[in-house]
Every structure is written in C-alpha cells, then in structure tokens.
Amino acid sequence: MPAAGTQTWNTVWITGASSGIGYELARLLVEKAAHVAVSARSTGPLQELSDRSSSIRAVPLDVTDAGAVAKSVADISEGCGAIDLAVLNAGAWSMMSVDEFDIDAVRRGVEVNVMGVMNALDALLPRMLARGKGHIAIVASVAGYRGLPRSLAYGPTKAALINLAETLRTELEPRGIRVSLISPGFVDTPMTRDNPFPMPGLISASEAARRIVAGLEGRRFEIAFPFGFSCVMKLLRALPDWLYFRAIRTFVWKA
Ligand SMILES: NC(=O)c1ccc[n+]([C@@H]2O[C@H](COP(=O)([O-])OP(=O)(O)OC[C@H]3O[C@@H](n4cnc5c(N)ncnc54)[C@H](OP(=O)(O)O)[C@@H]3O)[C@@H](O)[C@H]2O)c1
C-alpha cells in the first residue's frame, strides 16, 4: 500500500497482467494506487503478483468473454472502489503474411485486441459516465500507424484501437473522463521473444512500464516510446503513399 498522500489512483485495473508490460505495470502501479486488480487468463502469475502485496487482487478472466469482463468490473468496483484507471493492455500477436493467411488467427486477433477492449468499455463506460470521472488507457502499438508486412492479424487491430482511443477522447474528455493511447515500439516480452526479424530500439518490459506510468501521470494523450523509434514510425506515417511503400520495400523487406 502506498504511503498516504502519494496515491495517484484509488483503484487501477490492468488487463494482460500475467506477463510482459502488464506484469511490470502492476508492480509499478501498486506504488501509486490503493488497489490494483490484475487480469489475464493465466492464474499463476496473477497469484504471484497478489502474493507480493495485499493491494494487488488477482481477477482471472478471458477478455473475449463479455460476461466475465462485466462481472469482474462489478466485483472490482464493489470490492476495491470505483475503477479510476483501466489499462486495457491484453493483446495477441501472430506474424502472418499473405501466403499463410489464417482466418482463425485473424479472428483471434480481432477478438482479443479489439473486442477485448470493447468488452471492457461496455462494462466501464456506464460507471465512469455516471461518476463523471475515470481514466481509460488503451494499449495499441506503433504497428497500427500504417500497414506493415507480415502484420495481417495484428496491425489492423492496433489501427482500430488508435481510432477508437481518438474517438473516445472526443466524447469522454468533455464529460470528465480521460483517455490515453499507449503506442509502444518493440518491447522484450514473451510476445516478441520469437520474432525472427530485427527489432530496432527494443526496450525491456520494466522500462516500457516506467514510460507508461510517467505518461499517465504526465497527462499526455499519446504515450509513444521509445522516443527514437516512435519518431521514425511517426515520420513514416506522415510520408506520401508512394514514398512510404518505397521505403517499406527497401528497408523492411530486405531486413
Ligand atoms: N512487446 C511489444 O513489442 C509490443 C509492442 C507494441 C504493443 N504491444 C502491446 O502491448 C500489450 C502487452 O503485450 P506484451 O508485449 O506485454 O506481451 P505478453 O507478455 O504476451 O502479454 C500479453 C498479455 O495479454 C494477455 N492476454 C492474451 N490474450 C488474452 C485473453 N484472451 N484474455 C485475457 N488476457 C489475455 C496475456 O495473458 P494470458 O495469456 O495469461 O491470458 C498476457 O498477460 C499488447 O496489447 C501488445 O499488443 C507490445
């Protein structure tokens, strides 16, 4: 439990907290919140987190199960107090080129990355709107800025989340609810460990979590990192199509 007066939030909820960025976020946010509820499907790591601190509560769930998400949000709100900050971080990545198009993997990506967030919003929005406060942070990716090779089951889902965060902000900010868009570059987690391609600017999950917490506290809308790589990706986003596709052919396909 953080010392009195140092709490930024009362109740924080993190999805995808069983490994990688979400796990490290839980370890950091427990210093800043009275209660941290951690969710994912794997119960072992969630239990490990809750064994570290009485302020961390394991709430196992599958984000694709709308009923389980709604029940968990209700349980957390009743047990810990209204959720002040929800970090919607659960995500699934699979590398896929056109030659290996796999509709099941595409569906899984959409279900976890997009519908998982929508299920959380379905449970959170009425509560936050009724209170006129709250903070929703959506973990997208710089991979959602523009179309990238081998990203058929992932990039489109993250592009959807970027649009979703912007859309939410237009309506929620005037109603007292903050929205953050988290756009990581490459982070060393179980998700990326088997990637067979170079990952420029790779940072550790604990470093990613530090940058996210600093961004959430700094009240920025988009929290993009690491600085150098995200600048390159933003530059690519700003290029005219002819130059962008030429750059991809030259640099990415040859990597
Ligand atoms: N690592 C990177 O380079 C990178 C870059 C940009 C964006 N991101 C994004 O950052 C977020 C965290 O990823 P990570 O890198 O930390 O990877 P990770 O270690 O693989 O974490 C993914 C988390 O999502 C959870 N999850 C997956 N499917 C779920 C489901 N159906 N229901 C509930 N939880 C589910 C996993 O837990 P269970 O399997 O236990 O359910 C795990 O806790 C993701 O949204 C990812 O797209 C990562």
Instruction: Enumerate how many helices there are, as a single number.
Output: 8
Can you tell me the overall shape? Answer: globular
Main beta-sheet strand count, sense and barrel state: 7 strands, parallel
What is the H/E string?
EHEHEHEHEHEEEHEHH
Please, what is the oligomeric state? single chain
In the CATH hierarchy, the architecture is 3-Layer(aba) Sandwich
Structural class: alpha/beta
Distance between the termini: 46 Å
CATH superfamily: NAD(P)-binding Rossmann-like Domain
**Rg calc:** 18 Å
Overall domain count? 1
Enumerate the distinct ligands: NADP nicotinamide-adenine-dinucleotide phosphate
Summarize the topology.
Blueprint: E1 9-15, H1 20-29, E2 33-39, H2 43-52, E3 56-58, H3 66-80, E4 85-88, H4 103-131, E5 134-139, H5 155-172, E6 177-184, E7 187-188, E8 203-204, H6 205-217, E9 222-225, H7 227-238, H8 241-252
Parallel strand pairs: 1-2, 1-4, 2-3, 4-5, 5-6, 6-9, 7-8
Helix pairs in contact: 1-6, 3-4, 4-5
Bound molecules: NADP nicotinamide-adenine-dinucleotide phosphate.
Describe the structure.
The protein has about 260 residues and is of the alpha/beta class. The strands form 2 sheets. The protein has a 7-stranded parallel β-sheet, sandwiched between helices. Strands 7-8 form a two-stranded parallel sheet. The chain contains 8 helices and 9 strands. Helix 1 links the parallel strand 1 and strand 2 (about 35-40). The chain has helices spanning about 20-30, 45-50, 65-80, 105-130, 155-170, 205-215, 225-240, 240-250; strands at about 10-15, 35-40, 55-60, 85-90, 135-140, 175-185, 185-190, 205, 220-225. The longest helix is centred in the middle third of the chain and has 29 residues, at about 105-130. Helix content is about 45%, strand content about 15%. The protein starts with 8 loop residues before the first strand and ends with a helix. It has a single domain, classed as Rossmann fold, CATH 3.40.50.720. It binds NADP nicotinamide-adenine-dinucleotide phosphate. NADP nicotinamide-adenine-dinucleotide phosphate binds near residues 15, 112, 184 and 191.
